[in-house]
Amino acid sequence: MSRLKRTAICAALSIFAVAALSGSGAASAFGAADVVEAERSSLLPGAVYEAAAQEGETPVDYTIIPETPESPLAGDETRVTLSQLVALHAGSETSSREEECLAGAVYFEAKGEPLDGQLAVAQVIMNRARSGRFPSSVCGVVFQPSQFSFVRGNSFPPIARSSHYWQQAVAIAKIAGNDMWNSTAGSALYFHARRVSPGWRLNRVATIGNHVFYR
User: Has this prediction a pTM greater than 0.70?
Assistant: First the structure.
């Protein structure tokens, strides 16, 4: 820091010290020109403004920027998207027979569809298992006779377990089974492919991807 700058800053500090000691009378230490100068220099003392100008620097170089108060939301976790949640769980293994059944149903019924559509299929199965109107387990719902066309007896056809589709299906099963995300299908208990029109007299809940969902 140059001697001119140091002198200017010391002079400014002296003015503020006098103001602090003199109480309300200290206001007379500044004239109208000083007030204008201070406003022009982002409320810097006039002596500092002049020092900056003489040394070829801009007053902004000396502007004292107050600390910005921390946002009330700072530190809170940012809400993730369904896609991010799926990516977080993709690649993991199923942790139970129930999760395996749910992932298998999603894989065969909705692989390749939007993630919300895959989740909706899983949600219907979870809703059925909790409804008291269908088998009380996920596997019981999936393998209930005449419900899912992909079922072969009490088993699934072969699954390409290294595929991206299976990894997504497992992630969706974990998300649905642990209530990590609210599905657009809500409380739906039935669905059919959009290419068919069964004429059900049920309340339509949503149309997602290749399926129409009902309550």
Answer: no
